[in-house]
Automatic annotation (TrEMBL):
This is Predicted oxidoreductase. Residues 11-301 form the NADP-dependent oxidoreductase domain. The keyword Oxidoreductase applies. GO terms for cellular component: cytosol. Keywords: Oxidoreductase. It comes from Micromonospora avicenniae. GO terms for molecular function: oxidoreductase activity. InterPro entries: AKR, AKR_Detox_Biosynth, NAD(P)_OxRdtase_dom_sf, NADP_OxRdtase_dom.
Length: 317
């Protein structure tokens, strides 16, 4: 991102699962999270320099934003950065649905501005992108990014913003050892060449790539992530075993190796954190330097798993 951007940590923190907590959650993750547990996650993360929090209106339909704001209470606004999104499919009918959705996010987040605001998906790039411009001009959003956009759509959004003196400063796409569509489509190269930060999401494939879940211990029954991943867990075993072995040599876990891989590829992972011990993992991941041969081996095992983990909301890149 540009020089006026606050220093962005090597890893951002994701709060989609936080939309599950309490009564209003949508049960996507089937996670049992409490306000006090999430407060501990925030305290540990903030104390260790992980201060960039990613959320979205549609994570528990506002619940993730509300819970995040509660968990951050007491910290000065300058001590953390907020990243949230405009989701076209949830737009209201008014004159300016982007400004309206942002206003609601600001209310839930208890803030006057968002550090990084995203167009969540490319439903209509020409329609939604221009509506970011007045929000940038007013300072209600400090930086903008696009998510789930392909190369052509990123370039179009950049052109629209460019006409007003702004630019696409960040890209946020699904990117993991099982899902490298953005790399194959040249989006990582595009970002590197233009100094655009690439945020990789679902690096851990919602828990399926952590080694914590497997055929004998599947993802929580009844959750959406169980429906997406439980059927393919046997195919991931060779990869997660190798990740565990690579991590074991360094006192780290399979999940830490996945995160270290995403960092080694020049991306900023957004890791969904639900426990304080996962923050320890991020600290370890930051210290792991994978050898080129290890990266190649892990990617070959990811390819050999031969699974398609594309989310239902994602397009082919
Ligand atoms: N722009 C978009 O369209 C989009 C789409 C998806 C996600 N995102 C963003 O990216 C973030 C990350 O994606 P995600 O949360 O869906 O999935 P993820 O980061 O791939 O996986 C998160 C899950 O992995 C487990 N986990 C995390 N750290 C771990 C560790 N160190 N060791 C073992 N297990 C660990 C936790 O599951 P348990 O609680 O079961 O242990 C957690 O809920 C989201 O929260 C969201 O902010 C954006």
């Amino acid at each position: 991102m540009t020089s006026k951007t606050p220093a962005v940590p090597a890893v951002a923190l994701g709060t989609w699962a936080w939309g599950d907590s309490g009564e209003a959650g949508d049960g996507y993750f089937g996670s049992q999270l409490t306000a006090s547990g999430l407060r501990e996650v925030v305290e540990k993360a903030q104390a260790n320099g992980f201060t960039l929090w990613d959320t979205a209106v549609v994570y528990g339909m506002g619940h993730s934003e509300t819970v995040l704001a509660q968990a951050l209470k007491g910290y000065a606004r300058s001590e953390y950065q907020l990243s949230t999104k405009f989701t076209p499919q949830a737009a209201a009918d008014g004159d300016d649905p982007v400004a309206e959705m942002l206003e609601q996010s600001l209310g839930r987040l208890g803030t006057e501005y968002v550090d990084l605001y995203w167009i969540h998906n490319p439903a209509d790039v020409a329609r939604w992108t221009p509506l970011l411009i007045p929000l940038l001009q007013s300072g209600k959003i400090k930086h903008v990014g696009v998510s789930n956009h392909n190369l052509k759509q990123i370039a179009l959004a950049d052109q629209i913003l460019g006409e007003a003196g702004f630019r696409v400063e960040a890209v946020q796409n699904h990117y993991s050892l099982l899902y490298r569509g953005s790399e194959r489509a040249g989006i990582l190269d595009y970002c590197r060449e233009r100094d655009v930060r690439f945020f990789s999401y679902m690096v851990l494939e919602q828990g399926a790539l952590t080694g914590r879940y497997g055929p004998a211990h599947p993802l929580p029954a009844g959750s959406n992530r169980a429906a997406a991943y439980n059927g393919i867990l046997p195919k991931l075993q060779a990869l997660t075993d190798r990740m565990r072995a690579i991590g074991g040599n360094r006192g780290a876990s399979a999940a830490d190796v996945a995160t270290a891989w995403a960092i080694a590829k020049g991306t900023t992972p957004i890791i969904g954190v639900t426990r304080t011990s996962y923050i320890d993992g991020l600290i370890r991941a930051g210290g792991i330097e994978l050898a080129d041969e290890e990266i190649a081996e892990l990617e070959a095992l990811g390819d050999a798993a031969d699974v398609d983990t594309r989310g239902w909301w994602e397009q082919e890149m």
